[in-house]
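Checklist before submission:
- one chain only
- standard amino acids only
- sequence pasted in full

Submission:
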Amino acid sequence: MTSTPVPANPLRRSDDRRLPRIAGPSGLVIFGVTGDLSRKKLLPAIYDLANRGLLPPGFGLTGFARRDWNAEHFAQVTKEAVMEHARTPFRERVWRQLAEGIRFVQGEFDDDAAFDELARTVEGLDAERGTGGNHAFYLSVPPSAFPLVCRQLARSGLSRSEPGAWRRVVIEKPFGHDLASALELQKVVESVFPGDSVFRIDHYLGKETVQNLLALRFANQMFEPVWNANNVDHVQITMAEDIGIGSRAGYYDGIGSARDVIQNHLLQLLALTAMEEPVSFDAASLRAEKEKVLSAITLPKNLDLHTSRGQYTAGWQGGEKVVGYLEEQGISPDSVTDTFAAVRLDIDTRRWAGVPFYLRTGKRLGRRVTEIAVVFKRAPHLPFALADTQELGQNALVIRVQPDEGVSVQFGAKVPGTQMEVRDVTMDFGYGHAFTENSPEAYERLILDVLLGDPPLFPHSKEVELSWRVLDPILQHWESSGRPDPYRPGTWGPDSAHDMMARDGRAWRRP
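Returned file contents:
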């Protein structure tokens, strides 16, 4: 099969900033290509990259799954996913170019013949599409399947790079169930692929606002000088969802909020918020600073007082009656899986000594939001009458990761009138208002980084290990502490989460 090149973009000039970000000859193999992640995120992201002119004309896309499909049927499924979920307009000529490189291999993970056929398919793409032996393998499958797939990739020779070419593997979270399983998984994967060829996807790190956190801190003199214990009272990092587990019972039960979100997303956000300035923004320098933060985290002495876990009950949310976690389809009525988790962590460094970091995440909460709130200390002296500042809170810098990406600053201002009255106001920056460019979806950025071999946004194995060392003692404590605390849908978690903050003389922000 020969490809028909897409006409050159007349707007692309030699000074086009996309040039260093255009992938070279390459292909992507997706395992578990029939799942929701592939249909809603991966396949649309691949089309959007092609539509933005960031994929090579001969790009190859191969699906591997148990379904009895052929390449034509897989191409149709891909087209439907693209038309429903892609962020860029559908263009027939871009689709035809992409579709010519679509292949499908049917089989089970323990089927030697299927992986041998996959090897022949990949070789065929090299010959027909000019992919040059460069292929990434995306494991959109349960973690329990990682070892088997990796062993099959090794047995069939698919993991072996030829001179001048590369092979890479992409794995989705969770990276293990605890520290021991994470280390075992790392051992299996890195016995097949070199460490620098393993890309651990944390899609939060691909979000524009998360990357903007680095620009906010290190490109602006007004922020970095006050980013320390002299000025910061505490930091709150929240990832809240207003939905239940939906159809994810098979994945979620036994995992819970802490493993699903705190171990990866929130600890990564903490590391980026608290790290020192890297010597550069290459992968090694960023990882070195994040690892320093993660290794400096200390747990509170009394985990009963400074952690909270909850489980949502039945009730009303958004005007409709919803079931509790234990009534969700596929959930055991005696499950102790947490659907809400909150912890206090401290960082034993000079910059952050005495500044607590509060992390919380949960389902069926008040609204969908992810944010980092840096809350500053109160002014040491207020030359106002007490009544003048009754409605004045603490200054805060809030980085909104989703859904309305941006940054807001909360500070005090005088209320118009003849008397002196100071009240909180907010100054707001939103990406959608400040820039005309559309932000790429997180998976677009991360898939392109895999094809380019650019690893700064991917957690290294050491970061995963350090994160589990933080979370494991909390999980072990909870296992011996009875059931999670109940909370009603549409609230902000169980009473124990609010009590945890109140003991420190603080309160959760209302996002």
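Reviewer check: Confidence is low (pLDDT under 50) at residues 1-16.
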